[in-house]
Amino acid sequence: MLAAGNATTEMATYGWLMAGAEVQRQTGRHAAPVLTPTVQVRCADGRYATTGVPPRDPQTFAAILALLDRLGLRDEFGASVILQLGAELEAPLNFGDALTDPLVAEILTAARDVVWFLGEHLPAYDFFVETQSIGLATGVIYTPGEALADPHFVARGFPVDIEHPELQRAATYPGAPYRFTATPWRATRAPLLGEHQADLD
Fold first, then answer.
1. What range does the domain containing 31 cover?
2. Which of 51, 70, 112, 189 is deepest in the core (most CB within 10 A)?
3. 86 & 106 share domain
4. Cβ burial 165-183 (10 Å sphere, 16+ → b, else e)
C-alpha cells in the first residue's frame, strides 16, 4: 500500500528521496521541481481551455494548417510558414532535439504558439472540438456541473439521477467511468450512517 501511495504521487516522493527535489504543483501539468509555462489559454469567449502537448508530427502540422485555412486565420498567424516546414517533415520531432537544433526549436515554438492562437480566436468549446478532431489532447475547463452537461458525456449516459428517499428527491451524479457488457457498473447513492451495519456484524 505504501509503494502504491508513493507511485500515485508521480515523482513527488521519489524526487525527494533520490534527488532531494521538492516538486511544485502546476495547474494542468505534472508536478515538477521547476515551474513550467502554463498550459491554460483564455479563449475568445472568456472561458479557459487546457492546451495539452503541442503537435510534433507532420500529419498534425498539416491538419493545423488546414484548420487555419478553414477558419480563414492562416495569414493572421505569423509563423504559418514555420508550420509548413513541420508539415514537410519525414518523421515526428523529438522535443529533446530543440536543445541542439534551432530549426526544431522554431517549429516546436510555432506549434505551441498556434495552439494558443487558436484558443484566443475560438470559443472554448469550439477550440476543444476543433483541436481534438485533429488529434490534439485539449480540453475545456469545466465546473463539475458543466462537465456533466457536456454533449459527449450526456450521449454516453455518464450523468445519472440517483434517488435519495431520505431527501425525497433525486440528485445527478457521475455515472460509470467505463461501459462493460459482461460486468455492468451502476452508480448508487452513498449509504446512510449505519445503513449496512447489520451486514457487517
1. 1-36
2. 51
3. yes
4. eeeeeeeeeebeeeeeeee
